[in-house]
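Escalated from tier 1: zinc ion holo job.
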Amino acid sequence: MATSTPCAGWSAFCGRVAELDAGAQPAGVPVDARPGRLAAIRDDLARHDLDALLVTALPNIRYLTGFSGTSALLVVTAKECVLLTDFRYATQVDEEVGSAASVRIEATSLWGGLWPALGAMAGVERIGFESAHVVHRDFARLLEQGSRWHWRPIVDLVERRREVKDAGEITCIERAVAMAETALASALAQFRPGLTETAAAGVLERALRDAGSEAFPFPTIVASGPRSALPHARAAGRGLERGDFVLVDFGAVSDGYCSDITRTVVLGRASAEQRDVYDIVREANARASGAVRVGMQGMAADAVAREYIAARGFGEAFGHSLGHGIGLEVHEGPRLARTIETPLAAGMVVTIEPGIYRPGWGGVRIEDDVLITESGRRVLTRFSRDLLELA
Ligand code: ZN
Ligand code: ZN
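Tier 2 regenerated the structure:
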């Protein structure tokens, strides 16, 4: 689980932040990003004419309080921030949250503890709830036991705030990228004909752990030969064969923050046709990575890669969107897709992942993680984009 960081708990928000913000903070003292995040959410509450927000999505709770457990409810009002969790996390919540929230350890049920917690908050009537994260059973609780309050569905309030990363978050993502790249180099050296995709994924996941990754953002994809044409393939029992495209899509996690990388290699010598298709995807990736900038709409970024691939005759073979934000979740805002008008902002970290998939033949995807900066962008992924032919 451990990474090389000396920080614990809400450490996602410390580390190099202190160096980057040395003027405001004595060197070596981590900057706590949570008060600023809570203040932003309180601004949102005022704009939505709400007295409180009930936060149920765990990544949002982690973002606001630092708590990384798997059982929690959070209530944010103009003055209070109350976190409910259970006995299993009593020690952890103390270490991670500290004074960022008032903590209530509930003996039986979090929802059962919510009503008295809300009842103790003066002046709270209109409460927003995260409609994308409340299942119907819990919505029924709001209507029944919580009937003395007015509940309003809210979408993506905290998620919008999470789209722009601060320096501490970017450091975590950079670490996750570095771990993934170290692991990939080690794993590719072990890919051989006959190794099954699941075994190859295992080799890569072992290397990710060795590199310090605390988890896997999603099950590692290794798709070979014709199976590389499945954009979201599951590693299966197929043995790697000479001449295969081998598509590897995976990531690492550092202090809760994800990387998400794809490389496609050939086992043995690439054919001319493989090289042609690969070069088109690589050029589409390079064009989009070189184009993204502050103010560019998601749809415009998507179009850069899509129009190039279409002009080369493979428009029908690129059926998914260009990319997505990464952070505490491997898929988060902003999206880079055909219908997305949201403009990019400095501090966003997005994937650029064009692909070409030809059923029965194979596919290529090249995915990089890119930070949008005030002056342009910084491609965080450094792993070679040349077509690697594994011996
Ligand atoms: Zn990916
Ligand atoms: Zn991705």
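The first strand starts at residue 52 and ends at 55.
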